[in-house]
Structure formats: C-alpha cells, structure tokens
Amino acid sequence: MANFSTHGVSLPSIKNILLLDSEGKRVAVKYYSDDWPTNAAKLAFEKSVFTKTQKTNARTEAEIAMFENNVVIYKFIQDLHFFVTGGDDENELILATVLQGFSDAVALLLRNNIDKREALENLDLILLCLDEIVDGGMILETDASVIEGKVAAHSIDAGAPLSEQTLTQALATAREHLTRSLLK
After folding, report:
1. How far is CA 183 from the centre of its chain?
2. Quick check: 119 and 105 in contact, CB under 8 A?
3. Which of 89, 82, 45 is nearest to 62 (CA)?
4. In 3-state terms, what secondary structure has residue 122?
C-alpha cells in the first residue's frame, strides 16, 4: 500500500500492527495492506519478524529493523511483543509514535498489568484500541490517553452496575475496590 496522497502531500501509512506472545503466536493483529494476501502469508511474515527480533533487547525502548522492504518498529513488554510495520520509505519516528501510542494505550487499558493472559481476557479492548489508532492504514490517533478514552467510551462504564458489566470488567472493578479498601 502506498502513502495516501492529497494534493501532493504524502501521508504516512501503516501496513500492519502486530501483538504477539513470547512464542511468536498471535494475540491481536491487524493488516492494512495487501502485501500479505493470504492468512498463510501473514502467519509466515509474523513468524519471520518474530524470529528476526526475538534475540534483541527491545524492552527499554523501541528498536528498528528493515525486513522484506519494510520498516518494522518493535518493543517488548513482559511476554508481549508489539510491532508496527510501514513501507521502506516511511518515517521511522512516525512509526515509533504509533507503536508508543499502541503500547501505552494497552498499558492503560490493562491497568499496567501487561501480560498475555490479561491481554487475551481484554482482547475486545485491544482490538478497539487498534481501530482507534489506524483505519485502513491511515493513522488516526497516537496519544495513549485519548485512545484509552475512546475505547472506554465504547465499553461499559466502570461505574455501571455489576449486572451490566462483563465478567472481566466486574472482576477489575472488584479488584479496584478491594485495593482501595486495603490501602485506606
């Protein structure tokens, strides 16, 4: 997918956003490009990117890699591996900003309990997060607090009665109340 163009101005585009576990398996992925037309091609790309990056130390800050004529920006938090891919002509700083916005929004949504189990339990929120960040390859938002606010607006308010909350939301609310009462 090429850059979006409006009257000679080129807008950056994202080819995919990947969230993989520590074994390279999918947690949440979103493709915005036809570079990988089949599911098998997507899985092969994910495996290749994971294999190439797994030995690096991208825990403190994002790392950059060129892979199959793509720029891949990645970061590891706990047992989750975050990746943002753009074309080889994309600005790495913009891709890094998207990655930072995604990882920070996930941290806010998971209440800083960033691990595979928690991510899978809140997969709906993570997928909404991806939808708020990028649409059709075009970057919509990179501010984590704005993304988290929009995702929270889509889900049931934490102040809603327990009968209207999902099990995960109800447990999170109960955990917050218990924590608050223990800290008093």
Report:
1. 32
2. no
3. 82
4. coil
Backbone angles phi, psi at 68, to 5 degrees: 50, 50
Q: What is the pLDDT of residues 59-114, one digit of tens each?
A: 778 889 998 899 999 999 988 999 999 998 898 999 999 999 999 999 988 888 88
Could you tell me where the DSSP H helices lie in the chain?
39-53, 92-109, 116-121, 123-133, 144-154, 167-183
Banded pLDDT at 41 (limits 50, 70, 90): very high
Question: What kind and span of H or E run contains 30?
Answer: strand 26-31
| Residue 9 pLDDT > 70 | no
Burial of 23 (0-12, 13-18, 19+ CB in 10 A): exposed
Residues 6+ apart with CB under 8 A from 182: none
SS3 at position 136: coil
The residue type of 94 is I
Who contacts 106 (Cβ-Cβ below 8 Å, separation ≥6)? 19, 80, 82, 114, 119, 126, 129
Residue type, 132: E
Angle between helices 123-133 and 92-109 (to 10 degrees): 150
Q: Around Cβ 37, how many Cβ atoms within 10 Å?
A: 10
